[in-house]
Amino acid sequence: MRDLFDKIYKDKGPLGKWADQAEGYFVFPKLEGPISNRMKFQGREVVTWSINDYLGLANMEEVRKVDAEAAAAYGSAYPMGARMMSGHTDLHEQLQNELAAFVNKEAAYLLNFGYQGMVSTVDALVNKDDIIVYDVDAHACIIDGVRLHQGQRYTYRHNDIESIEKNLMRATKMAQKTGGGILLISEGVFGMRGEQGKLKEIVALKEKYNFRLFVDDAHGFGTLGATGAGTGEEQGVQDQIDVYFATFAKSMASTGAFIAADSEIIDYLKYNLRSQMFAKSLQMQLVVGALKRLDMLRTMPELRKKLWDNVNALQNGLRDRGFDLGTTQSCVTPVYLKGSIPEAMALVKDLRENHGIFCSIVVYPVIPKGMILLRLIPTASHTMEDIEETLNAFSAIRESLENGTYKRVSAAVAAAMGE
Predict the structure, then answer these.
(1) Rounded CA gap, 104 and 110, in Å?
(2) Is residue 178 domain-shared with residue 215, that is, in the same domain?
(3) DSSP secondary-structure letter at 186?
(4) Which CATH number does the domain housing residue 174 bear?
(5) Where are the beta strands (DSSP E) in 65-211?
(6) What is the 3-class SS of 127-139, one letter each residue?
């Protein structure tokens, strides 16, 4: 019998093997200072494109004031316990009611964390006789929720309606055998590519197939739609989304999440979500802070306008300079380049050290080998000066990538890793 840890000692994984070269700089970096368009990284000021603070709420004086007052009034512990036992308050109910109204649903339920809330919601919605159909590019929290499912599940090609219909046909045949139902899961906005899920086309399939639609709208909530209610509102199908999920970690610049649906569905979920039944309630300071942030989403459309002014300026500027942004239809701004992992390290170091630009880097195994993805998140707090500096920097790093500069610089790193 082998030691359980043998595999850990021998194989650190596709990302872990780079830890000695990457940790503290390329992964687990430390951004310092107030959350804003410019922060400090290793003592240098950088234009920050990796913070999901879409509306720029995180460091607003009025938001921080409410957060501070709530912390002073309630501390960081209240209410103690899970919602079902001792962690329920009038303010939790108020926030739920306001969220439900904002996203045009009958009811909503607060989740203490988005990731575990998504996992638990998927688990609660299905039993072993049911079938799940979901996008192959779904977020990790959805995949982990699906892994708990003891019944059949099918993946469809990313945003491919033909593939969706094919798998709905398979799911229908299976459901007829098991006597179960079908849950189809999509994202409102896919956070890596920036594409909107094809919700309008998916709900049209309800005329032919009997399924329920669950949408993770983490990146759409607060950014898309006439009022900011999300991707469903943007595409005119919010009423056809059976269970709607969004997190506070993006537009709300906070912690927590919620699900929204018909009242009877929410009543069922709040009694069956294991991650909420057996975990501490969302802390009061976060609830009070979320109420303030939601009020600003409702009453300050200028924040969303400023966000989209910046999104359009950045994305149009990059496209005008010949960069490949894929098919993003959201604030998420992916820039696709070709190169190895060592080249990607050299490129990002150049961006940060010599150009003062900080953005997230994504490489294999998240994307195919030989590709580099630089992911930028515009916010309402960015300026046109930030955007112009970034466009110039990206032109410079592309030239260095194409003329082989990064390949030469990275040769020593590749040799050290035996690549």
Answers:
(1) 16
(2) yes
(3) E
(4) 3.40.640.10
(5) 107-111, 131-135, 153-156, 182-187
(6) CCCCEEEEECCCC
- Enclosing domain of residue 9: 5-54+301-417
Q: Look-up: residue for tokens 């921080």?
A: 64
User: Any idea what the Cα angle at residue 229 is, between residues 231 and 70, rounded to 5°?
Assistant: 130
Tokens of 94: 């108020």
SS3 assignment, position 81? coil
Tell me: do 358 and 380 sit in the same domain: yes
Domain finish residue from 299, 329, 344: 299
pLDDT in the model for residue 142: 92
Query: What's the total number of domains in the chain?
Result: 2
If you write DSSP's letter for every residue of 303-347 in order, what string do you get?
HHHHHHHHHHHHHHHHHHTT-B-TT--SS-EEEEEE--HHHHHHH
pLDDT digits (tens, 9 = 90+) for 349-389: 999 999 999 998 888 777 788 899 999 999 999 999 999 99
| CATH number for position 389 | 3.90.1150.10
Domain edge (last residue) among 265, 299, 333: 299
Local structure of residue 191 (DSSP, 8 states): T
Strands 371-376 and 360-362: antiparallel
The contacts of residue 393 (CB under 8 Å, 6+ apart) are 351, 355, 356, 357
Beta strands 257-261 and 243-247, pairing class = antiparallel
Scan for tokens 């359980």, then name that residue: 4
68 & 49 share domain = no
Mean pLDDT calculated for residue range 123-142: 94
Are 240 and 181 contained in the same domain?
Answer: yes
